[in-house]
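G.,

No rush on this.
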Amino acid sequence: MLTEREVLSTINMLRNEHLDVRTVTLGISLFDCVSHDFDVFSYKVRAKIAKYAAHLVEHCNEVGARYGIPVVNKRISISPMAVVGAGFNAEQMVRACQMLDEAAKEAGVDFLGGFGALVEKGMTPGDRALIESLPEALATTDRVCSSINVASSKAGINMDAVALMGRQILKVADATRDRDGIGCAKLVVFANIPQDVPFMAGAYLGIGEPDVVINVGVSGPGVVKKAIDRAKETHESLTLSDVAEVIKSTAYKVTRVGELIGKEVADRMHLPFGVADLSLAPTPAVGDSVGEIFQSVGLSSIGAPGSTAVLAMLNDAVKKGGVFASSHVGGLSGAFIPVSEDSSIEAAANSGALTMEKLEAMTSVCSVGLDMIAIPGDTPATTISGLIADEMAIGMINTKTTAVRVIPVPGKGVGETAIFGGLLGQAKIIPVNTGDASAFINLGGRIPAPIHSLKN
């Protein structure tokens, strides 16, 4: 039970520190919708989504109003489309994406994730068809997100898939060139993707998950920053051990709030509650930034020497506090560093304090990876594949989730601005190492899994 002081502290978080439930995500399995006939498949999928998602937004709003805690996003995640639509060709995959977009709009949700494939060890015809469909599928839809898992600690890195995704990312960008390549903001390439992610663009419902389930993603980087600032004001000799404790106790409160909301929504919908993903996910709003936490801990900005150490401490303390608060922590659960979505991180990248190389180093200890980074539109496909390969290697060797969501902005170069809008924000285009990776990428094949994958 929370004490009176903790209740008052939580109320203050809501009023002044940008505490919210970032997303309630309804996971829906589509395995019982499978059919070789596309029209039958489409009918079954739309009917199932309509059945379970019809009142999702309504229930989220009611629960949010009851507790005074806004649920910012309402989302749906589905089984990987390359699996449930394994018999479809690329044209049918485009139609499937458009059908899912229409179903998401009818349900009133912000995004639908799961138009993706799991290809860490090889590709089926369905996987290839889905990946081939991505440029047209993401250009002609608004709310569908795609995640492609190309590596894992057990399987290694599928370099053929890495090479293909480098080419497809450029094609997706070109297909949405009139919107600064925004299609790439809905496409993320993963290593070790969790099966229960509620956050976009990586959300999907894994094969081992329930038929229908509620997962919640809590946030609150602004809450963490203010908690550290208060501790500095009240303690004359604050150490990093003290800072870690402050982050841990704050993460505990934030997770309790998120789980409360998620469980009540699940109860109202007569569905099981899955996990609370306690990732610190920023927005472009001032005061809701992960980057500002680095300044509160004593760095001039994120990207300064010491940034990787601060991020490691932040990530660990968030996990410790969240695990103590809930028995069902899942998803990614840590700290995100999406450049365009965080005003402080975007400013550091714009000033040159935060480079692509420093971002890559920091991903070794954060929850995701190279996230929402605008790069020159003329970046070669093999260079993008090289960035993906490096990030996948960090995830594979360290048995952690890593990902790449970069946006080559057509017709624009270093220093120009890409504007995406809303939660996606905007970003100055930053330089990418111009070294040639083409001969390496064109070798293809698989990078074997590390020796520590042999745990049986």
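When you get to it, here's the other one too:
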Amino acid sequence: MKKAAILFILLISTTSVLQAQTPLVTEIESSADNVWEQIRKMDNIDELSSFVSKVQWKGPKDIGGERVCTSADGKGHFKEKITGFNDETRTYSYQVIEGVPAKNMNNMIKVVDLGYKKSMIIWISNFEFIENPNMTREQFDNFLTTARVEMVENITKLVE
């Protein structure tokens, strides 16, 4: 298995509220078209992530559609709303609107063509963490990183 170069950067900026931007940047030995083909059908998250056992859709599998992802243990869920989708620019955007200790959580995945059958996935999450007794900020950041890295690694396997 080829290993993808994974760069994780956590940037925290303070304003009146603590907001995080957590980009995950991964270079892949496959064309942008092949990578985008896998990412654009993100209705199969349960096949890409060990954290999700089931995905249910409400509305279109496109902008405005909502998906509810059930946790692997079946005890929890989170709801996402698709806010952007563009085959031409290879971008996919969604908001997490329920089920995580964060508010205003906006995510964007972009596939960049690097030429010579190489591409890059850029996955950015912006959110305001909500203090709570069930999960610390560090635990949430670790969860996000682990979940996204696993999904990108599984996408990489699919396009090899």
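Strands lie at 5-8, 11-14, 18-28, 52-58, 66-71, 77-86, 91-98, 102-115, 118-129. Residues 137-159 form the longest helix (23 residues).

Enjoy the weekend,
O.
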